[in-house]
Amino acid sequence: MFEKIKAENGVVYLRSTLLPCPHGFSTRQGGVSTLEHTSSLNLAFRRGDDEETVLKNLALFSTAVGIDDKKVVSLHQVHSARVREVTNADAGLGYFRPTDESSDGYITTESGLPVGVKNADCTPVLFAWVRDGETKAVAAVHAGWRGTLSEISLEAVGKLIEKGAQKSEIFAAIGPSISSCCYEVERDFYDEFEKKYGEEFCRRFISESAQKDGKYFADVAKMNHWQLERAGIPEKNIDLCPFCTSCEEEMFYSHRKSRGLRGTMLSVICL
Ligand SMILES: [Zn+2]
User: Fold this and answer.
1) Prediction pTM value
2) Which of 75, 131, 184, 231 sits at 20 to 30 Å (Cα–Cα) from 258?
3) What is the pLDDT of residues 147-175, one digit of tens each?
4) 245 C-alpha to ligand 1 centroid (Å)
């Protein structure tokens, strides 16, 4: 189950009761950004805030979640399906150590090293491998529709299994993203998924618009849920956030809703 937490420092974030380690899906509430479109917890550079403001927000969010902001790893995202293993040598990469490198997913077995993905409609998924009450590894992926089509969530599951995880020990929390109420897509989107998973899948997750010809509405978060279940992750181990980033504009940044003029949220997890 997803819980909305308001931390002592004012930061509002979501967490999943299924994940036992420090983690959080940020909202737009509780930060120091003052621009209308980034107000107030923008966690990405190059959205209009100066770097100092973004790093202050990262510090606030990290304090709320209980992680070390100086170590958060989160790189530029390119809608790939690659999940990169990170170690303490990568600590701070993306925020405190600028880099041109990109990645849409992370896995780590090192404790105290937070990994995060940025989002503002795309689906963030956080993973924990838990054995006998102890978290052994964590992972985070950015699953936009292209990442979902190329199964980035399953890439993370595969990496956890390579580390020794049993499927029954893997827990996943699918965070806030744009839902089928608001996520309008074109026919080519439908065709790509039909080619990969067939018509029944499309009927389930992509509905035809009642108003506009050739337009559809899709639910990418539920597609990720389906992929995980199909891969053998028990349903009870998968949490699905009930919020739509476009509907809940007070709570989240939405790329669609704002036509691209928006701040960015971070979904982070730490062993
Ligand atoms: Zn919506």
Assistant:
1) 0.98
2) 75
3) 999 999 999 999 999 999 999 999 999 99
4) 7
